[in-house]
Amino acid sequence: MKLNRREFLALTGKTAAGAVIFAACGLPERELIVQSPVDLPEDLVRGEDAWYATSMGDFTNGDGVLVRVMQGRAKKIEGNPDHPVNRGKATARYDSALQLLYHPDRISEPMLRYSKNGNLVGISWDQADTRFKEALSNANGALTVVTNPLRGTLGSVASKFAAQYGGKHMAFDPVEQGVLHGAVKSVFGQDQLPTFDVSNAHTVLSFGADWLGTWGSPAGNGVKYGEFREGDRGYLIHA
């Protein structure tokens, strides 16, 4: 193939423009840092997805879920069919959990308020670690660790950490169910939230409880309600 000078220059220009376009489509540097091979799971196989069994502790009564992970990132959450609470059923809350994880406006660094009425300002992890150690050394037993409601190992770690410095661990739930806690403790002597056996009930009386939408475990309640409506159908009264 013979090229004259003008055709050669035109072809060179097109090649350079194409290289610029493909370079712009590449992964940004930050993306490469976040997905560093050092931080990826040891069982990672590139191009293959992995499924991890866990539970939804933030939104439900511990619904069992399976999380699909690709390249070290969670991509999909589905119900775990072997879990006794929701038995593989899922709700929209599962997908919203991924939105919380990847939301661009989420808090991704330590925040510090320099004055009582000032705004929160982002600081480095080293600065946060230094201030945290100073606060612990000056606490003198006046320490309170406040978290969202925690269960299992994580809750035990938070309580032991607070106790080590002479403090206490307190759980804060913006959707507090203290009244239900108190009612169950008064009637049954147990300070915990109940699990209602709707599937074997003859009559369900609900006073404004959105138990199929937002209350307790909607997925688990949905499974029980489906069984409740089969066979000898019971009565549902919603006031």
UniProtKB/TrEMBL annotation:
GO terms for molecular function: 4 iron, 4 sulfur cluster binding; metal ion binding; oxidoreductase activity. Pfam families: Molybdopterin. InterPro entries: Mopterin_OxRdtase, Mopterin_OxRdtase_4Fe-4S_dom, Prok_Mopterin_Oxidored, TAT_signal. Residues 49-105 form the 4Fe-4S Mo/W bis-MGD-type domain. Keywords: 4Fe-4S, Iron, Iron-sulfur, Metal-binding, Molybdenum, Oxidoreductase, Signal. Gene3D superfamilies: 3.30.200.210. This is 4Fe-4S Mo/W bis-MGD-type domain-containing protein. The lineage of its organism: unclassified sequences, metagenomes, ecological metagenomes.
